[in-house]
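Each record in this resource describes a single protein on a pair of labelled lines. The shape at a given residue is found from the number at the same position. The record below illustrates this layout:

***
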Amino acid sequence: KQWYQRRVAITAGDTAEGEAKRYFDHAFTLRDTIQFLRYNAAIDPAGVGAGVDLLRCESLNSLDASTCSRVLNKNYNLLISMAPLSNEVRTVSSSSPYHIGPPVPEVNSVWLKMWMYHITGCGPVSFLLAKGTRLLHLPPELYPYDRLMITTWGHESTIVNTSNVLMALNEALSHSAVLLQAYSKRNEAEIVYVTFPFDKSDVNNAENVEGDNVEGEESKKLDLVDHPALVKLSSCVDFDHSCGYVTFISSSKQFSERQDESPP
């Protein structure tokens, strides 16, 4: 409890950046969500604090289906997946109790990425390589990039320097298919996470603000809400009744300099 009280005043921007900042953001989001659920008078009129537990999907999946269902129905009314799940982690799909979160692990799979690239007509330079393929050199389309992203089947992506990617890539291809993607030029990749459902009122308010009052990360997110790629994707995905985020990556330039272009 003392550790928690000391950490309350610290923001992720004060202590970390990059991937570490992302983990901080997830931790603080989880904390705020638990506080909201515990002390929300609308769902806890008695004010005694609604019960909230943090469960690991892996622990639940170690139980057989009937036992898992019995434990969940006895103790909980609602399940919420609070972190992005990899294709390695199978979520607990449940209609009783209700489950809010990714319905199947394929939501975080290579196939969904490729489907989104196809629908939107944009995305990073990508090559899907079959298991057993052996490369002697990289495809010419990847020469301008100094870092690449390697995604082996059913695992998290890793970022590798282009100078030594062939060894890691051929090793991965010996036991799995691999999605090889461009990531950054001159180590200048910029990533922005645009959360949904989108609040169009924020965009309208930002357009009416004079000067530089809307800056930084939030300004980029507001600009990207109306990006052509999201407009196309919204015709296939119900963003208004779903929650999550879409990742935009610019390999070398600031998003503010590329407002009329699709991210590479």
Remarks:
- The chain is about 35% helix and 15% strand.
- The beta strands are 78-80, 98-100, 126-129, 147-152, 158-161, 178-184, 190-196, 244-250.
- The first helix runs from residue 2 to 7.
- The longest strand covers residues 178-184.
